[in-house]
Amino acid sequence: MKLFNSLNGSKEDFIPLNDKQVSLYVCGITPYDTTHLGHAFTYIFFDALIRYLKFQGYKVTYTQNVTDINDRDKDILQRAKEQNIAWNKLAQYWTEKFLTDMQTLNWLAPTNYLYASQQIPAMINLIQKLLDNKMAYQINGSVYSDISRVDDYGKLSKLSAQQMLKIARDFEEDVDNQDKKQPLDITLWRAAWQNQPPYIPKFTSPWGLGRPGWHIECSAMSISSLDELIDIHGGGKDLIFPHHEAEIAQSEGATGKIPFVKYWLHTGAVFYEGAKMSKSKGNLVMISDLLKKYSPNSIRWLLLSHNWQKDWEFKDGDLKEAQKDVGIVESVIAKNDISAQSASRLHEFTSFMDDNLNTPQVLGLLLQIAKTNSSRELKKLYEVLGFRV
Known about the structure:
Shape: globular
Order of helices and strands: EEEHEHHEHEEHEEHEHEEEHHEHHHH
CATH class of the largest domain: Alpha Beta
């Protein structure tokens, strides 16, 4: 099996660190106004990958996080203030919405589903290791990662310092923080300030009251739930910088073990009405709305009909076509006609899946098999991809 590794920019043979044991971490949601089609594209791809790895005899330990707290004043904290609701109650509400949507799409629940707010000790432990290793510094109750101590900072994103600075500003990173030695230093722990609004939570740490930075959260949760070195780390490609670049610097700086991740997998973005689907642009296509008109299998079919690495644009008629294709496949499966058998197509299925999880080709194969009215193998392969029968 070959997978495209963002770290090296090429397809590579997939060889896990520990034989048939696979460790996988995927960055999860910030729980407000979820779940849109872009979220589902990422998580259904990884769901298909996990199912296929299990089909091939691997044991997969899968961690996903919920970013219910971080160092930002916006996102969930701002929304909680606007709605006059406790931040943790808002997070719980939207997380449950997300889980309901994904379960409807027949998504396999992660082995570890971790809320950032409940993993503060792991984050403090990792920050302390960075301080001990002189990879971070403390000032005014906050702690920052010193990227000047990281010789290969940028090895994942391949960006220049100026490009990094621009993207960091776009992400509303605290690049103008005067306490930092340099703008791109990573906030590991943000100190609470005097007269901090009561809607912003505070956690106890060796450096005083405050809350963890966004990037250290995933480093800590992947290490504590999986290992210091893991096989696969994934998420949308918009997370390559600053989030995943920061994770590498933090994790390797704290443990001294390289590489923190063997295979980085990044999914493409989903566009709608000419722009990337995002909360700020207001062009979200919500899964809960689509489920009112289309079957879960049709939505999964649409998502898997696109190459997982590439950007694509959702058009309103796409799901009608997906529903039609699903109907063709499921009508054959429903006949349960085991007499109409043809030559096995399993080799073609595994060949496509082994080639960087080429699900568009696989869906085409399923339609070909359906034309032979061979229901037995069709049902088996359909289920491997996570379609509910």
